[in-house]
Amino acid sequence: MVATVNEKVILLVEDNPMDEELTLRALKKSKVLNPVVVARDGVAALDYLFARGPHAGRSTADLPQLVLLDLKLPKLDGLEVLKEVRKHEITKLLPVVILTSSVEEDDVARGYSLGANSYVRKPVDFDQFSESVRQLGLYWLVLNQQVPPGRRA
Hints:
alpha/beta
């Protein structure tokens, strides 16, 4: 998906096709109509954010409004992605919500210590999952006041 400037894009970083589909369905059901860019591994997520590889030429000023980040990813896991995102001036304040099935307390602690804005466990039940995604969309895309564009640091 190619988003136009000023659209509030969601970057979904998810390697499981079923979880990807559930998330997209839950967003649609919740009337969150923002464009969603899907990265299926940690390297692809960083390529998108830093406009490199297949995304070379995209302006790094066009950051997503929100990153929904799974932890268990191929190539580079979610915590490593988060660590890299927080190291760079242009992405250090980007809202990152860990959306994962991990119940490991260490994952929660490490996620927050690396700068996650929120940690949400994926409910197994679709209705509960859909409600979680609806609330995430409402808060992060509508209610939350973000740093104005051009004032990222």
